[in-house]
Automatic annotation (TrEMBL):
Ribonucleoprotein in keyword set: no
Recorded catalytic activity of this chain's protein: an N-acyl-L-alpha-aminoacyl-tRNA + H2O = an N-acyl-L-amino acid + a tRNA + H(+)
Membrane-crossing residue ranges in chain numbering: none
Gene3D superfamilies, per database record: Peptidyl-tRNA hydrolase (3.40.50.1470)
PANTHER family named in the record: PEPTIDYL-TRNA HYDROLASE
Organism: Streptococcus vestibularis
CDD domains: PTH
The protein's name in its UniProt record: Peptidyl-tRNA hydrolase
Gene: pth
Key words, A-Z: Hydrolase, RNA-binding, tRNA-binding
HAMAP family: Pept_tRNA_hydro_bact
Annotated family: Belongs to the PTH family.
EC number: 3.1.1.29
Amino acid sequence: MTKLVVGLGNPGSKYHETRHNVGFMAIDLIAKKLGLTFSEERTFKAEVASTFLNGEKVYFVKPTTFMNLSGLAVRALLAYYNIPMEDFIVIYDDLDMEVGKLRFRQKGSAGGHNGIKSIIAETGTQEFDRIKIGIGRPQKGMTVVNHV
């Protein structure tokens, strides 16, 4: 079996430590704990690290497309490695959850998240696992764009 774990974010130093990149941060932390390094895979429009865990190949991925096009990388990887949707999980930010809260969800709508919208559009399904990380709502007078 092969597993695909994708963290959502935006590439580039401008976005490196923004709230919207919490999916990238989570994937980076996992990779660091496992002693993995990422390599750029232009074919997949992503940075990829891999290892074997409990006898299963696991790919950790950070799409190098911008957030709104994350589905392109996900679709390419799922197809190339013939990974079924039940072996795919995505980690991303959620404005509607308190900062630092985690929530596991097995399926559902995009909930206004453009990265998830892209994945749903490219894969044709909402039936995939997600780990949402709360980033909270912006303070009064601050725009969502400036918050994330």
